[in-house]
Design brief:
Shape: globular
CATH class of one domain: Mainly Alpha
Largest sheet: none
Order of helices and strands: HHHH
Helix content: 55-70%
CATH architecture of one domain: Up-down Bundle
CATH topology of one domain: Acyl-CoA Binding Protein
Radius of gyration: 14 Å
Strand content: under 5%
Number of helices: 4
Distance between the termini: 20 Å
Structural class: mainly alpha
Length: about 100
């Protein structure tokens, strides 16, 4: 697996192919973190979904006991219309931040 440059690479100047490769690497590496706050999990989740799928393509979960599903839905919905490249960059930057600590 490709190494992640933890010295905060200038992803603003990366092309789409470079972003996609670094995104894939980051998404695998963050799985190895022992702990991550719920806020950070939701942040990564919403930009992962936006980068890989685009705008929300499911109905909002109903019911009182679907709290986690509702929070994920709201998080993803909050970044609606964010471009793929911006979503990739935000995910990569947050991943590098989390992996560097």
């Amino acid at each position: 697996m490709e190494e992640i440059p933890l010295n905060d690479p200038d992803v603003e100047n990366y092309g789409e192919e470079e972003l996609i490769q670094l995104f894939k690497t980051c998404s695998e590496k963050v799985k190895s973190l022992n702990y991550m706050s719920n806020d950070n999990k939701l942040y990564l989740y919403k930009y992962y979904k936006q980068a890989t799928i685009g705008n929300v393509n499911i109905d909002e979960p109903g019911g009182w006991f679907n709290f986690e599903a509702k929070e994920k839905y709201k998080a993803w919905k909050s970044v609606e219309d964010t471009t793929k490249n911006i979503a990739l960059k935000k995910y990569i930057k947050k991943s590098i931040e989390l992996l560097s600590t």
